[in-house]
Amino acid sequence: MLEFFGFEDLMVGAAIFVAMIVQGVTGFGGSVVCSSAVTSIYGPALAVPIMAMSGHPINGPLCIMQYKMIDWKSLAKIVAFALPGLLIGNFLFKTMDPLYAKIGVGAFVTIIACHGIYKAFFKEKLNAHKEANPDSTFAKVSRIGCLIVGGIAQGAFNVGGPLVTVFALSAVKDKSRFRATMCMFWMVLNSVTMFNHWAAGFWTTEFWIKFGINLPFMIGGFLVGCFLHNKLNQQLFLKIVYIVLFFVGGQMFLSNVMTLI
């Protein structure tokens, strides 16, 4: 007989609440922030489909209310390059060892975040009087690579958000347009992932019970995040985004390295 609510569910709910605050502020990072906690308590077979569906009750209403804020051109590019990777990741979910993949993604995202923090906190002040350098071909190709690999990581383990964010940060500058575009992106990508989870039989009775238990935590955290988002100026928003990237990348890298050791 399934236990409808216990201490473990409270711990998962608390982790999801904090994660959805991050999601509400930035438009990404929610799944990665709570991934370790939810997976360690519920197990991957239950945690992955819960996290994949967690964005729909919050991203859906936001996209409807702020559809004019969505950067459809950038969204089309993101989906075009990330969707093939997502399909590959869904296929690899049952066959791929997540440990090494998460170490690689975590290390790369941490490096990108450190560079972003340097630019946001230090380089911006030093070079305020200089014109921005033109974007190089290598940088553009690298960001497209982030979309493809991010799609694979998202489809397999729900941890592709930080990689996709690397591209989105360069394409969408305004904080509200960035968040709306990212939320719409998760609606598209997670719909594909949810269909695959349904087809694979992951939507069990236990899944629906645990999802229902955690739904209030998802909505509550997201509302707090939206309130904080509206209080931030553009410069502070970018700094927070890079700090979140540093946290999720570093946490992903260190936790999986410690598991390997």
Description:
With 261 residues, this protein is mainly alpha-helical. Helix content is 82%, strand content 0%. It has one domain (7-260). The protein is built from eleven helices and no strands. Helix 2 (30-42) runs antiparallel to helix 3 (44-54), helix 5 (72-92) packs parallel to helix 9 and helix 6 (98-126) packs antiparallel against helix 11. The longest helix is centred in the middle third of the chain and has 29 residues, at 98-126.
How far apart are the termini? 37 Å
Please estimate the helix content. Answer: over 70%
Major sheet: size, sense and barrel closure? none
What is the gyration radius calculated from CA atoms?
A: 18 Å
How many strands? 0
- Elements, N to C (H/E): HHHHHHHHHHH
Task: Catalogue the unreliable spans.
Answer: none
Features:
261 residues; mainly alpha; 0% strand; globular
In short:
The chain has 261 residues and is mainly α. The protein has helices at 7-26, 30-42, 44-54, 56-65, 72-92, 98-126, 137-157, 161-171, 175-199, 205-231, 234-260.
Task: Outline the secondary-structure elements.
Layout: H1 7-26, H2 30-42, H3 44-54, H4 56-65, H5 72-92, H6 98-126, H7 137-157, H8 161-171, H9 175-199, H10 205-231, H11 234-260
